[in-house]
Predict the structure of Ras-related protein Rab.
Amino acid sequence: MSSVSNGISRERIININDSLRISNLHKKELNFKFVIIGEFGVGKTSIIARYTEGQFSSTYKVTIGADFALKTLEWDEDTRVNLHLWDIAGHERFGSLTGVFYRHAVAAAIVFDLTRPETFSSIEKWLSDLRKKVHLPGGQNIPVVILANKGDITVQTVPPELEDFCKANKILAWFITSAKNNLHIDEAMIRLTNAAIQNHCNLQFPLITDDIVSLADEAPKNNTKRNTCC
Ligand SMILES: Nc1nc2c(ncn2[C@@H]2O[C@H](COP(=O)(O)OP(=O)(O)OP(=O)(O)O)[C@@H](O)[C@H]2O)c(=O)[nH]1
Ligand SMILES: [Mg+2]
């Protein structure tokens, strides 16, 4: 029997890897498309890069059209969740394309920049565009969180109207985030994922195969507590 430096045999490691591979094969996979929207320069791309790659760059590279990133979450023993994160350009010249980019989205994060008050004012415009152009298969609005980004720069106070805006518009939750300091991004994504799983379970979304995004199998709301798949 061959052995490796810590005394565990190579065969045993291969067996453990095989067991993991087999148990992974039995996992139910849920694929959710989330769209990340908001004015240019608020930090959408940076939030996604932080969440998916654990990186931050202070260089601003404008997103053209839309970009895409994948984050896989080992949600529980039986469920893997693949988040298809669509990074939608904030510049107005791409506004006419949003309907195409929103297609099949089951949740959204609207981002504004705490250091640029005008980006908070534009949240209403982004929300109304979203609610006009995308719905859940049952016709309901998709769940939305608001991210008050660049919380590392300013004293962490949000516009006083934010709370009322969220109540009036049935926003799931808001978070002060920082792509630079990795603040509350995981929490926000978990909140959205919980809502997506809950909706998926209630509505029994069909499997979508004509797009990169598919919604498979069956699946339940809370803060950062994880819902289990049904
Ligand atoms: N200090 C700080 N800077 C940030 C943060 N998030 C983004 N930035 C900076 O803000 C600038 C714009 O960030 P992006 O992520 O490119 O903004 P965007 O929303 O994707 O912009 P568009 O692609 O044009 O829609 C970059 O220089 C980032 O480094 C943050 O949390 N804190
Ligand atoms: Mg961008």
User: Anything to note?
Assistant: DSSP finds seven helices and six strands in the chain.
